[in-house]
Each structure stands twice: as structure tokens, then as C-alpha cells.
Specification:
With 317 residues, the chain is an alpha/beta fold. It is built from 11 helices and 10 strands. The strands form 2 sheets. Strands 1-2-5-6-7-8-9-10 form an 8-stranded parallel beta barrel, surrounded by 5 helices. It has one domain: TIM Barrel.
Amino acid sequence: MKVIDYIRQASKTLVSFEILPPLKGKNITSIYHHLDPLMEFGPSFIYVTYHRSEHIFKKKKDGTFEKVEVRKRPGTVAICAAIMNHYKVDAVPHLICGGFTRRETEDALIDLNFLGIDNVLVLRGDVTKNEASYEAGPLGNRYAIDLLRQVSDLNNGIYLEEDIQDGSRTNFCMGVAGYPEKHFEAPNMDHDMGWLKKKIALGAEYVVTQMFFDNQKYFAFVDRCRAEGIDVPIIPGLKPLTNKKQLTVIPRTFHVDIPTDLSDEILRCKTDEECEQVGTDWLIAQSQELKNAGVPVLHYYTLGKPKVIYNALRQVL
């Protein structure tokens, strides 16, 4: 079932989770251990991130270095299928530009379609550790809007091979990212909003926001979208703070602000356990306010912290 249909049919705020594929060398049981406690809250869908390949340099026996391509977290498509089979819950794979050719993307979409997965979250993808700035492959999609166009083409039966006539149409529900505090590469919010409008015009049916820690920024973003004629559901993305290190890592990595009240409370903590409790309390307050405001879905970036999400949702739902 499509994400947009869940939202349209819902009589209350839904819940969704986002997980990482396990590191190469681990198996699917790590995913089940992560999700098992959270299933108590009846998520309508579970997002699975996609990770591009990276280049690393491995030292050879002769002392020279060899450039090797690796993908540290493979398996997104298979994990989505496993989640749907194991939990009977719809899975939503991320689909990214970086590290994939257009043909690899088309093949992945065909696999997803065969598996009965009819939702995708369309993203550009992040810069790798070895890149000063984002670089798309020569045979891949450069921007999320290009990737969105490719999915839309397949939904209309248009394949990369021009000799395929009257091709079978896919039926993907496409979600895209939104940035309440502006995408860090956009020169201003007007520019960022312009690209979001283009994505909606191309067929994106809902928006999932980047994490934020100040609900007023989400509410202002929704108001701005509505004023610009963007009327699709806008799902807030939430993540807990659990240690002091995150006060510098999260703003640097995700380009979001942490409210002074929250950072001051975290800095007063003497242990990680105290930090985690502060983060949990803040997440509860955020979630409750958003739920009371009637947001369509509370979306949680679990990212290795299912216990915090669990403890928060026990107070919210």
C-alpha cells in the first residue's frame, strides 16, 4: 500500500521509522533485534536507507596503495523485502543518485516492482568522505529531480532502452526530502523552495523533512510551503540527542541548529545516561506538540537508538 494512501485513510497521526542496513558482515537478525521492540507502536511503514559505494585506499604488501571501491551497507532492496515478509509492514527504500548509474537505478526499480514494493523516497544522497563536494557519476543522475524524473518515466512505461515499446508501467509513490532550515547548498530558502515545487510538479506525493529540534521551524516551513502552493503532506523527521558529542557532530553533518535550552541541558549532564534522558524528554515534548497539531506522521530516525525512540513513544502514543 502506498504511503499517500495510508495518510489519506488515517484518522490519527501515524508512526514510521527509518533504519540503516547493517554493516557488511552482519545479518538480518540485527535488523529484527532493532525493530522488534518498536513494532509495538504499529508503524505504518519503515524506511530503509541506501548507501553508495566509497573509494578507500588499501595498503598492499609492497607498500603501495590500491584504490578499492566498497559499499559498507549493502542490501537495501533485500532488507525491504525481508521487513515486508517478516512484519507484514510496508517498507520504503531510499533511492539515491550517488554511486549508481541510471541503468543500475532502473534495474533496482524493476526489482522493487517485482517484489511488490510501491514506495520510494527519492534523494540525491550525501557527499562521501573522500569528496570535497558532491560529485555524480558520469552515467548517473546528478540531482534528486533527475532521479525523480527517471522514476516518473518508469511509472509511465518509459525505459532507458528506446526499443522497449509499450513497456509495463510501474506504480511507485514518490516521496522527497524537505529542509525546514534550508538545504545547506541552497543559496537561500527561496531557491530551495523553488526546487521543492518542481519536485511536486514532477509527481512527488509527500515530503519528509530533515531532522529538526525546534518545532517552530517545522511549522514555519509548512506555512511557507502552503503559501507557495505546495499542498502535499509534510512529514516531520525526528531524532533524539543522546550525548554531548552530538552537539557538534549533528550541526556539522546535517546543518541544523540545536536550541539553546536543549544544548544547555545536555552540557549540564555528567553522564551519557543523563544526556539520553534529556534527549528523550525533549523528543517526547516535540512529538506530543506535533501530534497535537495533527501532523500526518511522526517519522523517527532510529539510527541505532531504538531504546530512546521506544521510551519516548510509550509516553506519546
